[in-house]
Structures are given as structure tokens and as C-alpha cells.
Specification:
Belongs to the peptidase S8 family. The termini are far apart. The chain contains 14 helices and 36 strands. It has five domains: about 10-285, 3-Layer(aba) Sandwich (Rossmann fold); about 310-400, Jelly Rolls; about 410-520, Sandwich (Jelly Rolls), CATH 2.60.120.380; about 535-640, Jelly Rolls (Sandwich), CATH 2.60.120; about 655-810, no CATH class. The protein has a seven-stranded parallel β-sheet, with helices on both faces. It has a five-stranded mixed β-sheet with strand order 10-12-17-14-15, with no helix packed on it. The chain has a five-stranded mixed β-sheet with strand order 19-21-26-23-24, with no helix packed on it.
């Protein structure tokens, strides 16, 4: 059995990431590559580190020209150890490359910060001084034409750029985001994209997040982040070039993509790209010029990035290539092709919105397609169906975001006019040097606040607010990806301009959206005028809502109500602003206090219910803090008492209820309620019958659900003695079950000693001859005790109401 090659360095067991990317199997094929130079554009390298010295070549210090590129931060030394710490030297760890040529290019300050200019200069130096691979474990959120040109220069010179995506859990940084840069994210221990690893359409693959590597001062340390991921990929690329020295950078990228271990199950995803770096597969699996060779049908479409360069192959004129990509927003995708200039490609685009459109694509004529957010499909096929030879191609996709609904508002005089209210809107920077102006025409004094937030670190938002004719205020306190806030400020009638822009230097369109949240709270005027004293109280009409506000600290609003007859008055104060405590107090005509209530914490209303005799009454409203940006509402419901109840006036059974209540046959509920339309229970019905009929004799009853301690036991015992009520076969009475209209009729018939009649037809359309109570209904109808409903029905299974029961009982008593 073959034993895999593995270094003997004393700390190698701490390098768990080597097992995760299967380095031992890869080392069976190649252990180093000292025929090419790998440039590390970073903070420099510890030039005296014993584990790095054997593999270092001359570099440059761009921060302090003329000085050696020594590392005064540690970051560059961390990167160098992952790539090329010498192996089998009885020292420390082993790099992925046991032998290498590492060129330190110091382009980053000792605090880890760097400028775009120095970064670009470092890349160009590396390219011009023989580097084949440039490792960029750093990045910027901002696109620039300058850096894009340098990236193209490296590609043209046959130099591979490998860059970290970044560690903010946001958008991929540049230069990793450029189409020809190998963009590397981080994989967590659960084999998913690390939560802090930047993701998006530019990600190519991932590697382990945690490493153990070299540190300045000849030391070693544990490190993590995408900065430690990119060098793993760069080193494996060097091993690939050791095996395939004829390859070009795009082929190396294709090799790593096609050999990556798919972590998403979908081929490509914005979190993990094509998957986990597999060093063993890179060196052992055969390279395919046509990594997408099984994508000749739509259902086999290969997922690709919406912003990357990929390579593929047409086997002949009848070989279609199907791809699919996810557009992160509405917008457009540009297709650029590198192919034999004589050939043209037929492109069929199936958009996420369902539209299908054909295009003609060639090396000379790119195509820009509108896309909807979501999954699109591309079918690419040679127009020359008779072509017999194989044709390799490179396809570059680049995405641009949609123009928002407010566009053409790039100048103040073109400001988009918004309604004068609170609102939230989304916008984009869809063109070079884009900025958006909005205008809020305020006609009423109030308060204004504005929050500007973004969904990508590629924006550094700036907010500007100005009233026409006055000096404006610029808010730029946060950095990239952070929100800006114009604090709540008093505003007065006039036109207020709001400008949304990016910080200086953000020129091209940006893939991302900003959110502008405007809070405008107009200062309202109390519609009731001054009513801060009892003598100026607003006279209320019952049932009408009255709005008001308390714009003065310590102030009060007074209202009055005239009561003509004894009434239950229900006062409801609603619409209380958040975090405000309001107190509602009542007084009689001589301003003697009656009662008061304050809304409980967390509630926005308060209620009072009182019985008032005829006269004038006052309501006083106060609050623990002034407010003038929204109205409270006060309403008085006045319910005159009839028979001692506030809810029977005008009811069809008003007279009967008043009579029965006066004779103490039936009771009401609290708050002067009779609730005439509430269903009556069997126990309540027994109590009403016993009182109405004056029954006094009772017998001992035994029901499974009614004991001597039940409130209705005496009534049930007397009703049972009179043969009016009985239980069910299972021994229960179900005292709290609602009575049906058929049961009501039967109970009242028994109270009158009626046994029912069998002759004659059923008197109601919905009562059958086979129904258990049909005989009783026949007799009650024939003798005029019941009439039923106008449609000829009795509705025997409907629940009997309190009003219906007391009405039928009163008839029998009379």
C-alpha cells in the first residue's frame, strides 16, 4: 500500500486545514514549484523567519522605498507561511509548497491599511518582475478604473491574481470582484460558507477559514479569515502549474473550479462558489477544456456567476452550452466573448420574468440583456451548424443594477417631488457619479428626520438636507456600508431638498440598493380651539369622536356632556401616542371629582364607565408629556337606562324585559346590561321559570354535573319537582349548555301541563313529523302560544335567547 507523502515538521499536526483540502494526496504528485515566482502583495514578510528564509526571493518596499520589505504588522508573514514555509527542516510548520519562490511586496502600512495606488503599484511591480501568481489577501470596497486596468494588464501578461473576498459578511471586495481574479471565500467547520466571509456573484471557491501559520519574530500562531484562505488557493495553483506548465491563467482558474468539491449541491452558489478547494483533485483529475460538457440541455444548465469570466468548449456546430445565473437585482447583464473572430454565437436568453429573446454574440459585438431578479438561462451555440472543429471560448458576464423609479433626479432642479408624509423608498446608483435628489414640500410646521442605509459595503453613503434658500447640512459620519442619520429637527413651511450620494471617489454604478426612510411629523392644531378651562369646555354629542392634542406641557383639555335622563355613560380615550400616559378625569356640574383613569403602560387607550343622573358633566384630559404630532380621540356613548338596563332601549322585547325585571323574574349582568340577545343556559332557564311561576316545592336531585353547591341547584330541584326539567340518559343535566328553541318550548309546555297533540300536520316548515317535540309545537301553535318566524319556520335547533325565553314565559304567566 502506498503511503502518502507528508512532512515531518514538529508543528504540522496543528495545520488541520491541510487535511481538509486533501494535501497529503496532492503531495503524492507534487510538493513544490520553485520554477515560478509567487508575489505576496501585503505588509511585507519576516525576512529572517527560519521557516521562510529558504523560499524567499528579492522583493520591494513601496511604503519606505529603499528599505527591505520587512513585515512590521504580521499579516504578510502569516500569508507567506501558508504558501511556502519550508518542509522537513525540523522547524515549525510546512507550507503547501515545500519549495517555492516567494516575492515579498510591501504595499500595506504597519497598521494594515493600504491605498488603492500602492496596491496597484504592488501588482504592477510583481507582474513586471517575473511573478506568475500574485496573492492579494486584502481588498477595497470601491471599484476603480485604475485597478481594473491593472487587473487586465496582469491577465494579458499571463499572471494569475488570487484574492480574498473579505471578512465582513457583505459584498465581495475588490480586486477579488474583478472578473479575471480568482476570488476565494472562507469555509467554516460545518463545511458551509463562514458567516463573516463576503459572498456574492464573484466568488470562485472556498478554503478552510482557520489556519496555523508563521508569525513575525520567528514565531507561529493561529489565524483566520479569507486572508488566510487566498494563500491556500494560490499555493495549489502553483502546484497545478508545476504539473501543467503550459496552462494560461484562465485554464488554471477553470481547473480549480472543475475540481472543487461542490458544497451547495447546486454546482455554484454565491456563498461557496464552485465549492471547496481540493488539492488532490487539482493534481490527479484530468483537466477538461470543456468543464461544462454535460450541459447540452436546459435542465442540465450549469450554474455560473453573473459577474465572472468562465471558459468552455464547443465540440462542433451542433453542441449547445446551457448556463444559468442568478441576478441579484433587476438590471442588465453584459456578455463578452473571446472566440475565433470569424465565428458568431446564437444566444437564447430565458429571463426570470419568463421572457425569451435571441441575440447574436461575437468577439467584436458584445450583448447587453435586460434581466429580472432571479434565475436566468442562457443557451449558447455556434451559428455555423456545419462547423466540425472544436472551438474554445471565454465568456465574461458583468451585471449592472436597474435604474430606480425616481431616476433622472441627478440635479437639484430635477429633484423628485415626494408627498409631505413619512415614507420609505429604495434607490440605486445605476450610472457613473450618480446622485439622487428628492424634494419634500412641507406646508405645515413639524419635525423631520431622515435615515439613509445601504445593503452593501460598496457604498459609502452621504446624506444632504437643505431647506430652499437656506444653508444645507451634509451628514457623512459613517464609513462604507454604514447608515447616515439626519436627526429629528423642527421644520417650517417650505421646500426641503434631500440628496443621496456616495462619498468622493465612488464613480461607477454599484450593485446594491440604498433605503431612504423619511419621518415627517406635522405639528397639528387642536380642532376644538382653546379648551384648557372648564368654562371653555368643548360640548360633546354622544356617539361622536372628538380629536385633540396636548401641545403644552402641563396643559389640559376640557369637554362636557349634557345628560337628559339616567344613563350609563361609557367614555373611551384612544389614539394615545406611544410612551405617553394620559389621564381622563370626570366631574359633576359643580366640578366635584367623580373618577379618573390613566392608560396602563404599553396601552394606547383608557376607558371609564359611570352611571350619571340628569345634569352637566365634565371630562378633563391631561398627559405626562406634551405632544402635537398626532391626535387622540375621545368618544362618549350615552345609554339611557330602561328598566335599569342600558342595552334594551328600542329592542323588540323592551316592554317584556322591563316587566319581567320589575317582577324580579330575571336578573341582568354588571354594568347595567341585560344582554337580550345572549343565548340562555338550561340553568338560567330553570331559575327564570321557578321565579316566574312561583314554584316552592323541590325534590332532591342527583345529576353527575350538578351538586348541592351549584348556584342553580335550588331552582333545578324545584323545576324538576314540577316536571319542567329533566336530565339526559347519561345522568347529566348540562346546566351550562345553551337551550334550544325546541327545548324552550317543551319546558314552557310542561309548566302548563301540556303533553302535546299528535293529530294534524306539522305547523312549521322546518319541523318534521318525526322530530321529538313536534306534538308540543302543534299544541302550542294551535292554542296561540307561539307563532314562529315570518318565513314559516320555527328553527328548533337554534339557541334560544334571553329575550325570547322571557317573552314566551310572560305570555304563559299572563
Amino acid at each position: 500500500m502506498q503511503i502518502s507523502a507528508y512532512p515531518t515538521d514538529p508543528l504540522v499536526e496543528k495545520q488541520a486545514y491541510l487535511q481538509q483540502i486533501h494535501m497529503s494526496e496532492a503531495w503524492d504528485v507534487a510538493t513544490g514549484n520553485d520554477s515560478i515566482v509567487i508575489a505576496i502583495v501585503d505588509t511585507g514578510v519576516d525576512l529572517n523567519h527560519p521557516d521562510l528564509m529558504p523560499n524567499l526571493v528579492k522583493g520591494i518596499n513601496l511604503i519606505e522605498p529603499g528599505q527591505p520589505p520587512s513585515d512590521d504588522n504580521g499579516h504578510g508573514t502569516n500569508v507567506a507561511g501558508i504558501i511556502g514555509a519550508a518542509a522537513n527542516n525540523d522547524k515549525g510548520i510546512a507550507g503547501i509548497l515545500w519549495k517555492a519562490k516567494l516575492m515579498p511586496v510591501k504595499a500595506v502600512e504597519n497598521d494594515g491599511t493600504g491605498s488603492e495606488a500602492k496596491l496597484g503599484e504592488g501588482i504592477r511591480y510583481a507582474v513586471d518582475h517575473g511573478a506568475k501568481i500574485v496573492v492579494l489577501s486584502l481588498g477595497l470596497n470601491k471599484y476603480s478604473d485604475y485597478m481594473s486596468e491593472i487587473v487586465r494588464y496582469a491577465e494579458a501578461k499571463g499572471v494569475l491574481l488570487v484574492a480574498a473576498t473579505g471578512n465582513e459578511g457583505n459584498s465581495v471586495k475588490y480586486p477579488a470582484a474583478y472578473s479575471t481574479v480568482l476570488a476565494v471565500g472562507g469555509m467554516a467547520a460545518d463545511r458551509k460558507a463562514h458567516k463573516l466571509s463576503n459572498s456574492g456573484p464573484e466568488v470562485d471557491l472556498v478554503a478552510p477559514w482557520d489556519v496555523f501559520t508563521t508569525a513575525i519574530g520567528g514565531r507561529y500562531e493561529q489565524k483566520d479569515g479569507t486572508s488566510m484562505v487566498a494563500p491556500q488557493v494560490a499555493a495549489v495553483c502553483a502546484l497545478a502549474w508545476a504539473k501543467y506548465p503550459w496552462m494560461k491563467p484562465y485554464q488554471i482558474r477553470s481547473l480549480l473550479r472543475q475540481t472543487a468539491e461542490d458544497l451547495s449541491g447546486n454546482g455554484w452558489s454565491p456563498g461557496t462558489g464552485y465549492g471547496l478547494l481540493r488539492a488532490d483533485r487539482v493534481l490527479k483529475d484530468p483537466y477538461s477544456e470543456h468543464m461544462y460538457k454535460r450541459n447540452d440541455r436546459k435542465e442540465q444548465a450549469t450554474p455560473i456567476s453573473v459577474s465572472k469570466t468562465v471558459s468552455g468548449l464547443f465540440e462542433n456546430g451542433n453542441d449547445p452550452n446551457w448556463f444559468t445565473f442568478e441576478a441579484p437585482y433587476d438590471g442588465s447583464v453584459k456578455l463578452e466573448l473571446e472566440l475565433d473572430p470569424k465565428e458568431e454565437i446564437a444566444v437564447t436568453h430565458t429571463d426570470a420574468g419568463g421572457g425569451v429573446k435571441d441575440y447574436s454574440l461575437s468577439a467584436a459585438v458584445p450583448v447587453t440583456m435586460p434581466v429580472k431578479k432571479g434565475k436566468s438561462y442562457l443557451k449558447l451555440q455556434l451559428k455555423n451548424a456545419a462547423a466540425k472543429r472544436k472551438l474554445e471560448f471565454k465568456l465574461t458576464t458583468s451585471f449592472e443594477i436597474y435604474k430606480d423609479a425616481y431616476a433622472d433626479n441627478g440635479k437639484q432642479y430635477k429633484a423628485y417631488v415626494l408627498p409631505a408624509q413619512s415614507q420609505t423608498l429604495k434607490g440605486t446608483f445605476h450610472r457613473n457619479n450618480d446622485q439622487d435628489w428628492y424634494m419634500l414640500p412641507i406646508t405645515q410646521t413639524g419635525k423631520l428626520s431622515v435615515r439613509l442605509s445601504v445593503d452593501t459595503n460598496r457604498m459609502d453613503p452621504v446624506l444632504f438636507v437643505q431647506k430652499r434658500g437656506e444653508k444645507g447640512k451634509t451628514i457623512d459620519e459613517g464609513g462604507e456600508g454604514e447608515s447616515e442619520y439626519f436627526p429629528e429637527t423642527d421644520v417650517y413651511p417650505g421646500d426641503y431638498y434631500i440628496r443621496v450620494s456616495n462619498a468622493e471617489g465612488y464613480i461607477p454604478p454599484i450593485t446594491g440598493e440604498y433605503t431612504l426612510a423619511i419621518q415627517y411629523k406635522p405639528k397639528l392644531l387642536d380642532p376644538n380651539g382653546p379648551h384648557d378651562k372648564a368654562y371653555s369646555a368643548t360640548v360633546m354629542q354622544p356617539g361622536t369622536k372628538y380629536q385633540g392634542l396636548l401641545g403644552k406641557s402641563g396643559g389640559a383639555n376640557w369637554f362636557s356632556v349634557n345628560i337628559d335622563e339616567e344613563s350609563l355613560v361609557e367614555l373611551r380615550l384612544s389614539g394615545i401616542p406611544q410612551n405617553i400616559r394620559m389621564t381622563m378625569s370626570t366631574y359633576n356640574g359643580t366640578l366635584k371629582p367623580i373618577d379618573s383613569v390613566t392608560n396602563p403602560d404599553g396601552t394606547l387607550e383608557a376607558r371609564l364607565s359611570q352611571l350619571w343622573q340628569p345634569g352637566v358633566y365634565y371630562i378633563r384630559l391631561t398627559a405626562d408629556a406634551a405632544f402635537d404630532d398626532r391626535f387622540y380621540e375621545l368618544k362618549a356613548e350615552v345609554k339611557p337606562l330602561v328598566g335599569g338596563y342600558a342595552d334594551i332601549k328600542g329592542h323588540w322585547a323592551e316592554a317584556v324585559i322591563k316587566q319581567a325585571s320589575g317582577r324580579k323574574i330575571i336578573d341582568g349582568y354588571d354594568q347595567y346590561r341585560f344582554m337580550p340577545d345572549r343565548p340562555i343556559t338550561r340553568a338560567e332557564a330553570a331559575a327564570v321559570l321557578v321565579r316566574g311561576l312561583g314554584l316552592t316545592k323541590q325534590k332532591e336531585v342527583r345529576y353527575t354535573d350538578v351538586g348541592p353547591d351549584h348556584w342553580a341547584y335550588p331552582f333545578i330541584a324545584k323545576a324538576a319537582q314540577a316536571g319542567i326539567i329533566d336530565g339526559y340518559p347519561d345522568g347529566s343535566l348540562a346546566p351550562d349548555r345553551y337551550l334550544t328553541r325546541m327545548e324552550m318550548a317543551a319546558m314552557l309546555a310542561r309548566s302548563m301541563k301540556m303533553s302535546g297533540k299528535q293529530r294534524g300536520a306539522s305547523p312549521f316548515a322546518d319541523v318534521k313529523e318525526t322530530d321529538w317535540g313536534v306534538g308540543i309545537l302543534k299544541q302550542l301553535k294551535a292554542e296561540g302560544w307561539i307563532t314562529g318566524f315570518p318565513d314559516g319556520t320555527f328553527r328548533p335547533e337554534n339557541q334560544a335567547t334571553r329575550a325570547e325565553f322571557v317573552t314566551l314565559l310572560t305570555r304563559t304567566m299572563n
